[in-house]
Design goal:
The chain has about 300 residues and is an alpha/beta fold. It is built from eleven helices and nine strands. About 50% of the residues lie in helices and about 15% in strands. β2, α7 and β3 form a beta-alpha-beta unit.
């Protein structure tokens, strides 16, 4: 399956270009550099391995799936959750294997919900929904804002992917020394529900189990633009550290950074204005994204290797 993933990198020029641009940012090298190509191929190989794991997990049962993660690490997450005034928002990326960790949390009886995209591939969404619900992991379609708020107001756990891909209506951040955006949802939800954000890093270890690490919990003081930008930048810093520690395990093959310098300069201007209290953190009305920036992945034509959410 890993070889098949690498063949998809070679077969689709558009996907290959996006991947090379992304990993060029990670390495600080031009997209055409040989090291960038080698890293992209390694990431596609790891993605193939992830897909095999995803297909095998339903047959393992919740106990065996939970055994794939470090229980001691989960023990240390509990007080972070219990001490939150609201819920606990996990800010996660397409890195390692989020399903195994969610199953490990659910196995302990902790209430965990995951926001997922149900619009691009409805059949895949339904398959993954049934699989995850069988482990005790509740799935919420990304448009269902009422249920998302309800989870956090019940002081439960909520997992949100933050590396969907670049959208101009997100919150401007610096990531690998370049301007881009991350979704506004995590910071806005945290501010409105007194929830904490916990940026999680999940990496596959040499023994087939998954290592869980996290950055300091992020407290969002208010919904003011400056507070939203600062919280989202803290998530970007954590995301950069997680990807930098194991870039070959990052299986995100959509554009993460804007395509032009003009867009980058506009993001820098917006961030400065928001931090100074002279402008909003979120650009409203430019796209079909729902409120809070809880957007599905950017839609691109001929996207043959869309990742499961």
């Amino acid at each position: 399956m890993g070889t098949g993933g690498q063949l998809s990198y070679l077969a689709w020029p558009t996907k290959r270009r996006w991947s090379n641009e992304n990993f060029g940012h990670v390495l600080g090298l031009p997209p055409e550099h040989p090291r960038v190509r080698r890293l992209a191929l390694a990431a596609y190989r790891e993605y193939g391995r992830y897909l095999v794991e995803l297909m095998r997990l339903p047959g393992l049962g919740p106990e065996k799936v939970a055994a794939l993660v470090d229980n001691a690490a989960l023990d240390r997450i509990e007080p972070i959750w219990r001490e939150s005034k609201g819920g606990l928002i996990f800010a996660v990326a397409h890195l390692g294997n989020n399903e195994a960790v969610a199953a490990g949390i659910a196995e302990r009886g902790w209430p965990i919900s995951v926001v997922a995209d149900d619009s691009a591939f409805p059949e895949m969404f339904e398959l993954l929904r049934r699989q995850r619900e069988s482990w005790g992991v509740h799935i919420i379609a990304w448009r269902n804002l009422r249920e998302i708020f309800a989870v956090l107001r019940r002081r439960e756990m909520l997992a949100l992917l933050i590396d969907w891909g670049y959208r101009e209506d997100g919150i401007p951040v610096r990531l690998f020394d370049a301007w881009t955006t991350l979704p506004a949802g995590p910071a806005t939800l945290a501010a409105r529900t007194d929830s904490r954000i916990l940026p999680i890093s999940i990496r596959r270890g040499g023994d087939g189990r998954f290592d869980i690490r996290w950055s300091e919990p992020i407290e969002v003081a208010s919904s003011k633009p400056a507070d939203l930008v600062r919280a989202t930048q803290a998530m970007a810093d954590a995301l950069q550290a997680a990807i930098g520690a194991a870039p070959e395990q990052w299986y995100n093959f959509k554009p993460i950074w804007p395509a032009t310098r003009e867009e980058s300069r506009e993001l820098e201007r917006r961030a400065a204005a928001a931090l100074a209290g002279r402008g909003p953190a979120i650009v409203e009305g430019q796209t079909a994204a729902p409120p809070l920036g809880l957007a599905s992945p950017p839609r691109r034509a001929a996207d043959p290797a869309a990742e499961p959410s």
